[in-house]
Design brief:
The chain is an alpha+beta fold and about 170 residues long. The protein has helices spanning about 5, 30-50, 80-85, 110-120, 165, and strands at about 15-20, 25, 55-60, 70-80, 95-100, 125-130, 135-140, 145-150, 155, 160-165.
C-alpha cells in the first residue's frame, strides 16, 4: 500500500495504526505503565529543552521510503528541524530524537527495524527504554550504542543530562 492509499483509510477509534513497508499494522492502545513513562519522558525532555525544540508523545512521522508512516512513543525535534517542516503537511523524516518504550510483549526485531529506519531518516538519537530493566539504550547514526542504567545520566542532544532514575520515578 502507498501512503496516499493509507491516508484514505477511515480513522480508528483505538490503538495505533502505522504503515510499515507498505503494510498496515494496528497495535493496541498502550497500557497505563507505558503511558506514564511516555508522559514522564515528554515532560523531562520539554523542561530540559526549553526553547531548543518540541517534545511530544505518539509522534507520527513519514520516513523517506514513501511506504511508511510511523509513530514514536516519545520524540523531540530541534527548533531548526521544525523550521523546515510544512505546517500543512506531515512530519517529514524522523524526529531528531525518537524514543520507543519496550515492554515484555514487544518484538525486539521490530524495535531494531524502527531504530534503523529512524537513524537512516534524520534521527540523531534513538532510545529504547527498557521498563523492566530500568535502563535506556541510546543509539546514534554512526553505529555507537550506549546503555544507561540506574544511577547514570543520559547526555541530551541539546545539552544537559537526564538521570535514568527520573524516567522511572
Amino acid at each position: 500500500m502507498t501512503f496516499a492509499e493509507f491516508e484514505l483509510l477511515p480513522e480508528r477509534e483505538s490503538g495505533r495504526i502505522e504503515l510499515r513497508n507498505g503494510e498496515v499494522v494496528k497495535s493496541p492502545p498502550p497500557k497505563s505503565k507505558h503511558v506514564l513513562i511516555q508522559h514522564c519522558l515528554r515532560n523531562l525532555l520539554a523542561n530540559a529543552a526549553g526553547t531548543a525544540g518540541i517534545a511530544g508523545t505518539e509522534w507520527a512521522f513519514r520516513p523517506s521510503t514513501g511506504r511508511d508512516y510511523r509513530v514514536a512513543d516519545v520524540a523531540f525535534a530541534p527548533t531548526e528541524q521544525w523550521a523546515r517542516m510544512d505546517p500543512d503537511g506531515y512530519f517529514d523524516g524522523a524526529p531528531g530524537l525518537a524514543i520507543e518504550i519496550a515492554l515484555p510483549e514487544d518484538l525486539f526485531g521490530e524495535l531494531l527495524e524502527k531504530e534503523k529506519l529512524c537513524l537512516e531518516n534524520g534521527a540523531r538519537e534513538f532510545w529504547i527504554v527498557d521498563i523492566e530493566g530500568r535502563q535506556v539504550k541510546v543509539s546514534t547514526p554512526d553505529g555507537h550504542t550506549i546503555t544507561y542504567k540506574s544511577g547514570q545520566q543520559i547526555p541530551l542532544l541539546f545539552g544537559g543530562n537526564m538521570p535514568v532514575d527520573s524516567i522511572f520515578a
